[in-house]
């Protein structure tokens, strides 16, 4: 629709388009897209698509946008994925569009600046150092103390994130092709102290006028559950959980530090033996099955809230809490061509199953480099009590079968993936 | 020097280098420079120079800086000119360097965002509209009411700024080669209502921890004086002048609106029949002879303050007000090869002359496009009372002689210059 109440938007995205239901939302009028050539066919003929070599090329994105602004009003710039967050912030700042400007977008996507900003504001984070090439890691690690985590300053999905425990392990890694991705980075690298985590939380919030008008705190499946076969997922904390309030208090500190006054926030927080530490903040809805899980748990649609807050509108939250606990779990992938995979109908036989969404099927090729495809689907199921989760995940692991054969033309992957974090 | 107390800096600049005395300052250790190829020879062999096609290419500047950060500490990023202000802000934000980040740098150099930011904060500005190509100017002007001023969103020196009084004048301009520069812009254009100015002020301030620790308000020579032959210049307002306090109050509002908490600010303010209006803010010392004039008037060195605040140091202001009024005046230039120009010694015979600095000499070619060379020198002189200024400028106009011949190879100029504003 292009009526009076519709907003004209510019979408900046690469490997994942804005969810189709948002593109079809009655709030949205004309849609223009800046993307990379290989993703141009995500969009229909009614969408004006402009391509750039990389959506992280700020100059190219800025210049490509001029033609879109010349063609008509742009009410909001939307970026659904981690890639492009900084570029879309730059567009808003440069062209004077409402929403998250470059400074906040950068603080929510550039992990070094994020850590620096949080530490300066007194938010507890792991010790860290920036380095500008891989060879500087041992010096930084010696200052911080081994073991360390090394990651690119930009990126999602734990792609090219590596844990290193000693100078010797670093030497082996640096000489190995697993480090190709980190060596090729054209941005600084972040070296962080590796901390022992007692629990890992994520906090998903809708922020309006500087205040979280919705905030859910969830706990990721612990290492024991993940060892069942890579079933990464989470479930919301009970309201009475002692860490719930503390995590929301940290969220408020983080929002103030990065200047996020309106939008959707995804915060990672760890409990360590020394207390809670903030991991990372993202200014977008999370991936995996988290949005769907929170929708079933609370009746809150984070993508709708993302659209509304991007348009400068108050989010229409209609809380309808479920009586049970909604657990989300991704189905683990493996590189290669899929020869067999459990169909959704069979997975739906899991007791308490609420929703099964398969993103891969027989014949699909899973590229070791495409971190966004590191799951083959998402299962959401209900339990009455937290204690039931391990047993239910064990049942899921027994139901789920994935067979792959090496696919011709699939390389070893240019990067190294530590663990998928939504 | 490279001792413990020296700071390593990255200079981002194009047509004008950081003043040599700053490069030689004892605060400065290692100097790295990102500039454009034609300006690389401004620097000596001890300076690491990296070139990019344009210092306004944010991606190129960001990527070029990675090698500089990899080579060693960068304590501050310095940009002495209007060009590169946004890019240097981006570098600070992206690499986590202290000083003015992208959001503030953009609000202090992107004239549309500047106006939008000031208007949103309730600061009085002229009515304005952004347009994305020259052909949209008449529609914007019809909304605002003719006459209008059209300018690129980025730029200094009033280059490519044009006053248009009617649709007919626009048509003639758009069809003429004078509009080549505006038509070639790859950024939005700003259309503003042209307002009748009763007086034009500039306010130069040193800002530390959000507060102006020094602020001088000066008045530009009025149109009558400029009609003497283009002697652009200014003189400080007496402390008792009724507009002085009002301009400083506006400065405070502007600093808050753009988020400039530390640095050197140059603010343009106009008195109109409807009151004071803010023109533009820049986050750097002004050009022309203004820095030298203020140094003689108040004993304050804005470049030193620029360096100190860029390094995160409190500015060392040592106020030594002069007993007289220090007037600055630029010597007007004309395109062509200089065949005769009054020597400094002869200009120094002007009564009250304090300092004469010639930037051009016989044989030099003045390019119609090089707005930074639109003067041939600067004369500073003392008067006891404001009323003496017109007479003294008349004497200067009689002393100053400039003869040029058309220079082979000099074109008509790609742009259009309205009036030189420092």
TrEMBL record, chains A, B:
Supply the name of the protein: Biotin carboxylase
Q: Which UniProt keywords apply?
A: ATP-binding, Ligase, Nucleotide-binding
Superkingdom as given in the UniProt entry: Bacteria
GO terms (molecular function) for this protein are:
ATP binding; ligase activity; metal ion binding
Q: Which residues form the ATP-grasp domain?
A: 115-311
Q: Which organism is it from?
A: Kitasatospora kifunensis (Streptomyces kifunensis)
As given in the record, the signal peptide range reads none
Spans through the membrane: none
């Amino acid at each position: 629709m292009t009526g009076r109440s519709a907003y004209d938007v510019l979408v900046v995205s690469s490997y994942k388009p804005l969810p189709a239901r948002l593109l079809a939302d009655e709030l949205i009028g004309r849609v223009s897209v800046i993307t990379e050539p290989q993703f141009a066919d995500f969009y229909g003929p009614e969408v004006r698509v402009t391509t750039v070599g990389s959506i992280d090329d700020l100059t190219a994105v800025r210049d490509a946008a001029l033609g879109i602004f010349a063609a008509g009003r742009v009410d909001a710039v939307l970026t659904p994925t981690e890639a492009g967050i900084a570029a879309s912030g730059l567009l808003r700042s440069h062209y004077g569009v409402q929403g998250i400007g470059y400074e906040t977008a950068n603080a929510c996507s550039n992990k070094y600046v994020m850590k620096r900003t949080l530490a300066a504001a007194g938010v507890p984070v792991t010790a860290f150092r920036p380095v500008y090439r891989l060879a500087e890691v041992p010096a930084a690690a010696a200052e911080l103390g081994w073991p360390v985590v090394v990651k690119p300053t930009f990126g999602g999905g734990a792609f090219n994130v590596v844990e290193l425990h000693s100078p010797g392990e670093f030497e082996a890694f640096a000489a190995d092709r697993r480090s190709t991705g980190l060596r090729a980075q054209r941005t600084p690298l972040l070296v962080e102290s590796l901390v022992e985590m007692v629990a890992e939380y994520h906090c998903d919030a809708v922020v309006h006028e500087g205040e979280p008008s919705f905030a859910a705190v969830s706990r990721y499946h612990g290492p024991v559950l993940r060892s069942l076969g890579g079933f990464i997922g989470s479930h919301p904390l009970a309201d009475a959980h002692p860490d719930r309030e503390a995590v929301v208090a940290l969220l408020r500190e983080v929002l103030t530090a990065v200047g996020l006054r309106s939008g959707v926030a995804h915060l990672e927080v760890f409990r360590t033996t020394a207390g809670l530490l903030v991991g990372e903040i993202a200014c977008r809805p999370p991936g995996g099955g988290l949005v769907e899980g929170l929708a079933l748990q609370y009746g809150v649609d984070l993508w709708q809230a993302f659209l509304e807050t991007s348009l400068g509108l108050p989010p229409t939250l209609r809380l309808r809490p479920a009586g049970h606990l909604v657990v989300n779990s991704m189905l683990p992938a493996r590189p290669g061509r899929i020869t067999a995979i459990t169909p959704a109908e069979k997975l739906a036989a899991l007791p308490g199953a609420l929703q099964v969404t398969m993103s891969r099927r027989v014949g699909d090729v899973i590229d070791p480099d495409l971190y966004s495809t590191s799951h083959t689907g998402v299962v959401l199921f209900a339990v009455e009590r937290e204690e039931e989760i391990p047993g239910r995940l064990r049942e899921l692991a027994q139901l789920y079968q994935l067979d792959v054969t090496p696919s011709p033309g699939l390389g070893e992957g240019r990067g190294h993936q530590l663990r998928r974090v939504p």
